[in-house]
């Protein structure tokens, strides 16, 4: 493999099941050096894909968790004025107070730019940010440089990072933003794919438990009244709970019982409604 997977191809990773279409868009985005925007409901593996790429290609992963109040400069760098002020007042620091650069700390995008090796940069939940943040960030990522105004210095990327951007589709991204990225929608896994995912996490799982748990999971996801449908993470944790209960019997699932609904449903109305529906089905 070449330096940090720069010319390597992504084919999946430990505990990450990859379909052919997703593999192709990941690899073509790396070859084109374009950001890849991933959309899909929570639990479809958008965030974990970046982790899997970094693991597979032996690259460092840098994660920028976007917040609604975040300013772009925070993702680029921070100027620690408070520490500089304290150093100048007390005079016991080893830093040169007159050198502002010693008080500049790189943000997540800045760290990706100054890295000596190519990294994976995950920009998670970009839809939380406003349109100006999105478009300004793409300008920086297009040009692969930004200015630190306090020291009149331009930081240029040493290696163009592999950029993965996720969105939960809570609000639309701007057309200019999408026009400068590749795009892929990750659909929720079908039962066959989910079965493969579960088998990766539980290689020794009994076939009867596997089939009944997956069937019950999809039956529950189809309930119309749910505010938040359970995702892959909840299914994995649910099976883990069932396997760790010495009194659990797989036949309970076949009878329509749903042990530990609180592992699957995190919203109080969903939890209550599922318990009620399950009780009615058994009566």
- Based on CA atoms alone, the radius of gyration comes out at 23 Å
The structural domain count equals 2
Specify the oligomeric state.
single chain
Low-confidence stretches: 1-6
CATH homologous superfamily placement of the largest domain: P-loop containing nucleotide triphosphate hydrolases
**Terminal residue distance:** 60 Å
Summary of the model, kept short:
This protein has 283 residues and is of the alpha/beta class. The chain is built from 13 helices and 9 strands. The chain folds into 2 domains: 3-185, P-loop containing nucleotide triphosphate hydrolases (Rossmann fold, 3-Layer(aba) Sandwich); 191-282.
Key features of this structure:
283 residues; alpha/beta; Rossmann fold; 2 domains; five-stranded parallel sheet; two-stranded antiparallel sheet; 13 helices; 45% helix; elongated; disordered N terminus
Task: Report on the architecture of this protein.
With 283 residues, the chain is α/β, with parallel strands linked by helices. It has 2 domains: 3-185, 3-Layer(aba) Sandwich (Rossmann fold); 191-282. It has helices at residues 20-32, 46-57, 72-76, 81-90, 108-114, 131-143, 175-179, 191-201, 207-221, 232-243, 251-254, 261-264, 268-282; strands at 36-39, 61-65, 77-79, 104-106, 120-124, 145-148, 153-156, 162-167, 182-185. Helix 8 (191-201) packs across helix 9 (207-221). The termini are far apart.
How is the secondary structure organized here?
Elements: H1 20-32, E1 36-39, H2 46-57, E2 61-65, H3 72-76, E3 77-79, H4 81-90, E4 104-106, H5 108-114, E5 120-124, H6 131-143, E6 145-148, E7 153-156, E8 162-167, H7 175-179, E9 182-185, H8 191-201, H9 207-221, H10 232-243, H11 251-254, H12 261-264, H13 268-282
Parallel strand pairs: 1-8, 1-9, 2-5, 5-8
Antiparallel strand pairs: 3-4, 6-7
Helix pairs in contact: 8-9
């Amino acid at each position: 493999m070449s330096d940090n997977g720069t010319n390597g191809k992504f084919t999946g990773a430990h505990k990450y099941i990859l379909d052919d279409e997703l593999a192709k868009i990941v690899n073509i985005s790396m070859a084109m050096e374009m950001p890849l925007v991933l959309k899909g409901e929570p639990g479809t593996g958008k965030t974990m894909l970046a982790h899997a790429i970094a693991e597979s290609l032996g690259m460092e992963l840098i994660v920028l968790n976007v917040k609604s109040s975040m300013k772009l400069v925070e993702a680029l760098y921070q100027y620690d004025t408070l520490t500089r002020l304290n150093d100048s007042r007390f005079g016991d620091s080893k830093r040169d107070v007159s050198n502002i650069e010693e008080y500049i700390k790189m943000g997540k995008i800045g760290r990706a730019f100054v890295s000596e090796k190519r990294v994976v940069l995950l920009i998670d939940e970009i839809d939380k940010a406003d349109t100006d943040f999105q478009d300004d960030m793409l300008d920086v990522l297009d040009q692969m440089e930004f200015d630190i105004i306090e020291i009149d210095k331009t930081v240029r990327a040493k290696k163009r990072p592999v950029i993965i951007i996720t969105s939960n589709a809570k609000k639309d991204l701007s057309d200019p933003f999408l026009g400068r990225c590749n795009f892929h929608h990750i659909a929720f896994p079908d039962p066959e794919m989910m079965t493969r995912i579960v088998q990766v996490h539980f290689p020794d799982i009994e076939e009867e438990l596997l089939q009944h748990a997956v069937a019950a999971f999809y039956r529950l996801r189809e309930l119309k009244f749910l505010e938040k449908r359970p995702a892959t993470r909840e299914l994995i944790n649910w099976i883990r709970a069932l396997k760790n209960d010495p009194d659990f019997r797989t036949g309970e699932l076949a009878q329509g019982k749903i042990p530990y609904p609180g592992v699957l449903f995190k919203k109080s109305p969903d939890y209550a409604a599922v318990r009620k529906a399950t009780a009615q089905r058994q009566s």
